[in-house]
């Protein structure tokens, strides 16, 4: 399991997450409950509490994990949402849409017949088109997943 978690974390690191954040995500994914306390993460990953604190704070801000209060233990548990990748894609789509919009504005300012304006317009069209496809695909997957979950 440790080897799997390390390989999974390494692959997530390729998305831009730091090694520690990737390890936290991999650890949460690999646990049956989908959630662990800070102390459990420290024990599983054999790192300092400060490392876990920094990682979970960032992951929470990115909406990749969420904090739940465990009333039995009176501690916070960090949990992977079932829709985490959908949420991450939608957040990325919002950023891409903003890039497409600003690139289109730049094209208008420079003039679409200028080399710079033409490049910016091309970027805007590309990001807009690919972004629409990503959002449609993610929404389609969500519907498939909902049907599959209902049929269990």
TrEMBL record:
Entry keyword set: DNA-binding, Transcription, Transcription regulation
Domain HTH marR-type, first and last residues per copy: 10-110
Superkingdom of origin: Bacteria
InterPro entries given in the database record: HTH-GbsR_regulator, HTH_MarR-typ, WH-like_DNA-bd_sf, WH_DNA-bd_sf
Protein name in the entry: MarR family transcriptional regulator
């Amino acid at each position: 399991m440790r080897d799997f978690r390390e390989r999974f974390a390494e692959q997530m690191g390729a998305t831009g997450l730091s090694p520690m954040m990737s390890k936290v995500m991999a650890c949460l994914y690999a646990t049956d409950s989908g959630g662990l306390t800070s102390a459990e993460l420290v024990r599983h990953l054999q790192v300092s509490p400060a490392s876990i604190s920094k990682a979970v704070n960032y992951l929470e801000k990115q909406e990749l994990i969420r904090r739940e209060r465990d009333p039995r233990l009176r501690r916070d548990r960090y949990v992977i949402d079932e829709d985490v990748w959908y949420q991450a894609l939608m957040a990325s789509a919002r950023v891409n849409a903003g890039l497409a919009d600003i690139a289109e504005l730049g094209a208008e300012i420079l003039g679409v017949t200028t080399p710079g304006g033409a490049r910016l317009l091309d970027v805007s069209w590309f990001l807009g088109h690919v972004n629409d496809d990503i959002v449609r695909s993610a929404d389609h997957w969500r519907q498939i997943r909902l049907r599959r979950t209902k049929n269990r």
